[in-house]
Specification:
This protein has a domain at 3-195 and 225-260 and 326-344: Rossmann fold (3-Layer(aba) Sandwich). The strands form four sheets. A seven-stranded parallel sheet has the order 3-2-1-4-5-7-11, sandwiched between helices. The protein has helices at residues 3-6, 18-30, 67-73, 95-116, 155-169, 197-208, 228-244, 246-249, 265-273, 285-302, 314-320, 330-335, 343-354, 357-364; strands at residues 8-13, 34-41, 56-61, 79-82, 120-124, 139-142, 182-188, 190-192, 212-215, 225-227, 252-256, 279-282, 324-326. Strand 1 (8-13), helix 2 (18-30) and strand 2 (34-41) form a beta-alpha-beta unit. By secondary structure, it is of the alpha/beta class. Helices cover 42% and strands 17% of the residues. The chain is built from 14 helices and 13 strands.
């Protein structure tokens, strides 16, 4: 029998989302022992079934908070990639909803793995399980063992930290059939690339202000960024390593990294948005702090009548002003990770997509 007939079945929660699309593409291109990919998502895109290989791609609508749905879609799965997550640092989503998706959903995944005898689980975590914190403590060229004052105030990083703890503590759990569950966690820094909604949001802000982008984050601030295709590639390598070297990789957490330059969020995004002729306007940082405070105040005042949740608030400004970069080779040492795409390729692929924004805006109108 061929590898395709005897190959692996992968399940990706959040499979129709930003990272999920990159995971699908990398798996189809780089995983030889592959028979089926299941994409499980609350908001599905049926077109993701369309590809030019003989791998079966199954798109299933479902809610990660519904255990029966998670259990059913994971029957017969070999490798579980749990990428579904509710990301919110703008107070748009109630805390109990974030916890239901990110924490309860992860508990459902673990239970389904145990009941269905699944042995390999890769969890998509976040750098925010560590930081940056709102106290402004920098994390510069840190690694997985670097001490840091972890201090969470928003529901999203709190929920991701809880979920990651659940996943890592589940490593070694007995599953039906007598085998063990092997787990690991990947912590991307700021992901970017094709289909990244936040990049579109920044573009729309520039359009609304007539091409002016107001910036005030200190120029020396730097953040780690990582291309979505390289994050997906690391997931594939981690999944392989869990199967081949579970004693090394199981129970471990890894930062996701590549060759993308360290810059502030503002300067990094402008590398792509400058193509539209947007003009930067530097404003004193104190002005941004006042605007962030004002936005938080208005959100509280307007809460009974509407959901006022702009991108700028005190939390997002604190994060933007706090350096957080990683310098590690743990993934290289443990499972031979090196970026699938170099910086020039990442920049070119992202820019090609960003250049379509004006066309999409015209279609929308």
């Amino acid at each position: 029998m061929s590898d395709r007939e005897t190959g692996l079945v992968y399940l990706i929660t959040g499979g129709c989302g930003f990272l999920g699309r990159h995971l699908l593409q990398v798996l189809l291109e780089k995983e030889d022992k592959l028979r089926e990919i299941r994409l499980f998502d609350k908001h599905i895109d049926p077109t993701l079934r369309e590809h030019n290989t003989d791998v079966q791609v199954v798109v299933t609508a479902g809610d990660i908070t519904d255990y029966a749905s998670v259990l059913e879609v994971s029957r017969g799965v070999d490798v579980f990639i749990h990428a579904a997550s509710l990301v919110d640092v703008w107070h748009r989503v109630p805390e109990h909803v974030i916890n239901a998706v990110n924490v309860q959903g992860t508990e459902n995944v673990i239970k389904a793995c145990v009941e269905n005898g699944i042995q390999y689980l890769v969890y998509t975590s976040s750098m925010e399980v560590v930081g940056p914190n709102v106290k402004g403590d920098s994390f510069v060229r840190g690694n997985e063992d670097t001490p840091y004052n972890v201090y969470h105030t928003m529901p999203y990083p709190k929920s991701k930290a809880k979920a990651e703890k659940i996943v890592l503590e589940a490593n070694g759990t007995k599953v039906n059939g007598g085998a063990c569950l092997h787990t690991c966690s990947l912590r991307p820094t700021g992901i970017y690339g094709e289909q990244h909604q936040l990049m579109k949001d920044f573009y729309q802000n520039g359009v609304r202000t007539g091409g002016w982008l107001f910036q005030g984050v200190p120029s020396e601030t730097e953040h780690g960024r990582v291309y979505a295709g390289n994050v997906a590639w690391m997931h594939l390598l981690a999944a392989r390593a869990l199967r081949e070297h579970p004693d090394t990789v199981g129970g471990e957490a890894y930062f996701c990294y590549d060759d993308s330059p360290y810059k502030s969020y503002e300067d990094f995004n402008m590398q792509f948005l400058s193509a539209f002729g947007f003009r930067e306007v530097r404003v004193p940082l104190i002005v941004l702090w006042f605007l962030a405070f004002f936005n938080d105040l208005m959100r509280w005042i307007l809460k009974p009548v509407c959901n006022y949740t702009p991108l700028l608030n005190r939390y997002t400004l604190a994060v933007a002003c706090t350096s957080f970069t990683v310098c590690t080779d743990k993934a290289l040492r443990h499972f031979q990770y090196s970026p699938l795409y170099d910086w020039d390729q990442c920049r070119m692929r992202t820019q090609k997509w960003v250049d379509t924004f004006p066309l999409e805006s015209k279609k929308a109108t």
